User: Fold this.
Amino acid sequence: MIAVIDYDVGNIRSVINILNRLNEKFILTNSINEIDSCDKIILPGVSNFKHCMKNIRQLKLDHILKEQIIKKKKSILGICSGMQILSSFSEEGNVEGLNMIKGNIKKIPNIKKLKVPHMGWNKINVTQNKLLIGIKSQTRFYFCHSYYFCPTNLKDSIAETTYGIKFCTAFNSDNIYGVQFHPEKSLDHGMKIIKNFQQQC
Assistant:
């Protein structure tokens, strides 16, 4: 059973839709008892980093998630803003994150006349990892973001994307996974990522 964390930050409906298409068992929740009853966690998000962390803290999910992920070692998949708030700190609002993976969130620079936010389909280059089984380099995924994750340990990066600069677009540290792109909006390849997370991670 997957706990999809409900903290009012968008894109939850899309995540639910893809889980339904995959016939995966899940519950949309922010209840400590329900989260505790699940085997894995998905942390979605399409919102400002500061807003995400405010909601997380108001619901006391920061303590709940750390208990489940750091102590009980349940696997978590952060998506977009949900990926970013797993980090240590963000330039977006100058706010501390959950600090479950070491690294900071930085603004995508305005270079080469590329528009920010980075929105639309882009290719990723992958490193072998359980989350990315069956995903080849140059596979296209859907993005919508203005900030990117810069890992302290470069080995935590398992996929990169180039948009003016090269940046980490997926990470893995122990039981903690994150993707900057939106698998729930990336058709068959996105479904493969969600399936990998449930079956392999």
